[in-house]
Amino acid sequence: MDFTIEHLRQMLDQKKISAVELTQDYLDRIRKYDDVLKSYITVTPEQAISDAKKAQEKIDAGKAGMLCGIPFAIKDNICTDGVRTTCASKMLEDFIPPYNATVMEKLISQDIVMLGKASMDEFAMGGSTQTSAFAKTRNPYNTE
Asked: What gap in Å lies between CA 132 and CA 58, rounded to an integer?
């Protein structure tokens, strides 16, 4: 299946799938594979479904922008209001920001669906998650 944003947008607009169904498919895959892959530090299923329902209302009204209803993982160094943001560091393990980063505000204004916070190297100092305080992310094509 073609999982480009453009293709997902077409599927949503043509009512081949709803934003909630699409989001649930992603959440099911996270639940099925992330114990091994470790690609998320925090998963936000309730928020994702809520975001998807709001997006579907805009889709149904014919007012959907390009990103409306599209599921996203947000890197864990992007502040997300009310959602744990650790920067993959034990020092920030329990930090819950009281605001959104500007980039998050821009994504929210486009009605994206946030699935959760993606793993990363501590404070984004690297590119392999080897310095994450929580887990090393595995390659889905070769988990070794």
From this structure: 37
pLDDT mean by block of 10 residues, the chain; 144 residues = 86 97 97 96 98 98 97 98 97 97 98 97 85 87 86
Alpha-carbon 49 to chain mean position: 12
Can you name the residues that pair with 42 across neighbouring β-strands? 117
The pLDDT score that the predictor gives to residue 130 is: 82
Please list, in sequence order, all residues whose beta carbon lies within 8 angstroms of the beta carbon of residue 22, skipping any fewer than 6 positions away. 8, 11, 12, 52, 69, 71, 113
Q: Is the whole model's pTM more than 0.85, yes or no?
A: yes
- Compute, in degrees rounded to 10, the torsion defined by CA atoms 112, 100, 74, 48: -50
pLDDT recorded at residue 11 = 96
Q: From residue 142, give the alpha-carbon distance in Å to each of 1, 36, 120, 137.
A: 20, 11, 18, 11
Residue-level pLDDT at 128: 83
Domain regions of the chain by residue span: 5-124
Dist CA 55 CA 11 (whole Å): 14
Cα(53)–Cα(47) distance, integer angstroms? 10
